[in-house]
Amino acid sequence: MKPILKFNGVSKYYPNGVHALKEVSLEVMEGEFISVIGPSGSGKSTLLRAVNRLIPITSGTVWLDGHTVSDQHGRKLREQRRKVGMIFQNYNLVYSLSVLQNVLHGRLGYMNGLKGVLGMYSEADKREALNLLKELGLESFCYNRASDLSGGQKQRVGIARAIMQNPKLLLCDEPIASLDPSSAKTIMELLHNMTQKRNIACIVNLHQLDVALKYSTRIIGLSKGEIVFDGPPHQLNDEMIERIYGTAKGNLMIGGEGGDKTDTADCA
Questions:
Q1: Of 37, 132, 141, 264, which is most buried, counting CB atoms within 10 Å of its CB?
Q2: When comparing pLDDT for 154 and 71, which is higher?
Q3: pLDDT tens-digit readout, 102-111
Q4: d(CA 152, CA 266)
Q5: CA atoms within 13 A of residue 47's CA, in its CB half-sphere
Q6: pLDDT value of position 263
Q7: pLDDT in tens, 152-167
Q8: Strand order of the sheet with strand 84-88?
Q9: Domains contained in the chain, CATH given
Q10: CB of 144 within 8 A of CB of 177?
Q11: Segment 213-229, tens digit of pLDDT
């Protein structure tokens, strides 16, 4: 089986001198649920954004579904990006539009410019969007403005929009960082269950070590732009955790770097 994603010696230097990724090599197979962990500034977000060329890499090669990402331009790059759904910490919804319209935006990459501008979605797309919202427990919010939702609900809309793309890979950049622990648990279970059900590979950037240990089939640990751990959760011992974070595991599990950020105004 060929990997859906492959990094070969990927490095990224920013103009300010930051060396965000250093010779990173990895492969991601269909259906894997991977958590990327590490302290702030370790390169987690840069790693995700290099996948579909939201940022250009400095050296090395990124393959997505058998094609070199850096070789793609215009229409071919847009076609590649269809294969990658993204979920963001701050949701990236259009708050003036309805929940259903936001989910349907996941189909824009498949539509020509005029149809996309006019929102001329097919009946099949509308049915699929409604089915996804039902699966996520949001069917009664279809016609609500996205701005009216709680944080956990907004993130569920983000998940539905990403799944609407029919992606082969889902990238999630700190998807639970703005949520309270109960909402975070709901979002992680939905992400895990929906991607496993559809055999979609999923890469999740997380600060919460306990969450990574619970949900992942594989964990990648980054430190100063380098992969220092890549393996199943049960192999991530205390010594390796301290190498990744520069502090003991106990400090990460109780209100430390890996603790949940609480916002009691949000609910899932």
A1: 37
A2: 154
A3: 999 999 888 7
A4: 6
A5: 39
A6: 34
A7: 999 999 999 999 999 9
A8: 84-88, 169-173, 201-206, 33-37, 218-223, 226-231
A9: 1-83+201-259 (3.40.50.300), 84-166 (3.40.50.300)
A10: no
A11: 999 999 999 999 999 99
Residue 266 has pLDDT above 60, yes or no: no
Taking residues 142-155, report their average pLDDT: 96
Structure tokens given for 238: 């205390």
Q: Model-level pTM?
A: 0.89
Cα dihedral across residues 103, 172, 28, 52: positive or negative: positive
